């Protein structure tokens, strides 16, 4: 999984019906191994399954595992927010 | 998922029959975390499942989830356009 | 999927029996978003399922979808050539 | 699989129930092909299935295989620590 | 698939039991599209299913297809050596 920050939202009316009812959030990956400010990031879109909001630090599952969070194996999503991070401790030694 | 822009089309007559009937569009990934102009992008090909056209901003699902959009688990596609983006709001704080 | 160019062939006698009968081609990814000449590329190996030859521009499916092209879910391949590209149109605006 | 070093821990109370009971560790990839110090790394999060602790060198499985370690195909995890490395020998010729 | 060179071995006593009996080899990806010497590589770990040894040039399958080589869908591996390369011909035009 990766940690990310919710940076925004996306809306799409013309879409696969199986996606109806899902909230799509734009997520910036956070990597505690870098100087964040100087490292451009590829934002991606995740379906929200944790009630996340703009600015929240979230835990994102990607790939085939993402669908298991939405509990519908036919939903065409490859990234899902599965949790809102309370705290994270990272040492840099 | 990722957001992309449809940049073109691809045709292939000699192909796996299971791909027959699909439209193949060339997509440029868009990442709201970068200065787009200065970041070269790896374009890729996606099967269209939302009626997208050249220039449209689209939502693309990749990996094993892509096949669930085409509703045929045997179709050898690893990227599918699942929606046409109405709007996207991204903050950069 | 991605577009690639067939750059060569690979032979392996000592291999998983389930791979027997497959042709392995070396593929260079082509990304219409870059100045090709100046961008080094990671070549990879794909099983051929379209009758491709050296120099052909091909359409490649990767990941779990690749096996669906070979129509044998037990074949350990993660990249398959699923088509030979007739033409591709890409705008750069 | 990849080799990594456990750099920290992550806690998330508001999360997918199917993740309950799992320990989430922050992992820095280690690549014996680089001068580690000068190569920034994208840390990621893995569920622990080997009893790993901070500072341990671990073996991590990612993608759909990760769920098979947790022996529950419905758990939305895409990275699992499957072993604690005793030793690793790498030549650089 | 990718071509790699076996650079070493890894041992882990405390690991998922489903991994017991597997040999873990450290692999350096080889990409015929680069000047190898000047391109740092992320080494990774693959389970050996071809009887490979240190220094061998090997064919590696990654992702969900890897498990199909080990013929046990429950083994948590995401990379398997499926063959030892006899020869590879790559043109650079």
UniProtKB/TrEMBL annotation, chains A, B, C, D, E:
Organism whose genome encodes this protein: Paenibacillus aquistagni
Pfam families linked: EutN_CcmL (PF03319)
Name of the protein: Ethanolamine utilization protein EutN
Compartments it resides in: Carboxysome
PANTHER family listed in its UniProt record: ETHANOLAMINE UTILIZATION PROTEIN, ETHANOLAMINE UTILIZATION PROTEIN EUTN
Keywords: Bacterial microcompartment, Carboxysome
Gene Ontology cellular-component terms listed: carboxysome
Phylogenetic classification of the source organism: Bacteria, Bacillati, Bacillota, Bacilli, Bacillales
Stored InterPro entries: EutN_CcmL, EutN_CcmL_sf
Membrane-spanning segments: none
């Amino acid at each position: 999984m990766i940690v990310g920050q919710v940076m925004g939202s996306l809306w799409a009316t013309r879409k696969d019906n199986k996606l109806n009812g899902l909230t799509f959030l734009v997520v910036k990956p956070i990597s505690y191994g870098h100087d964040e400010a100087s490292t451009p990031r590829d934002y991606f879109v995740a379906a929200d399954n944790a009630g996340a909001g703009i600015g929240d630090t979230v835990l994102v599952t990607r790939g085939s595992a993402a669908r298991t969070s939405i509990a519908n194996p036919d939903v065409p999503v490859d990234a899902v927010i599965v949790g809102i991070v309370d705290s994270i401790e990272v040492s840099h030694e």
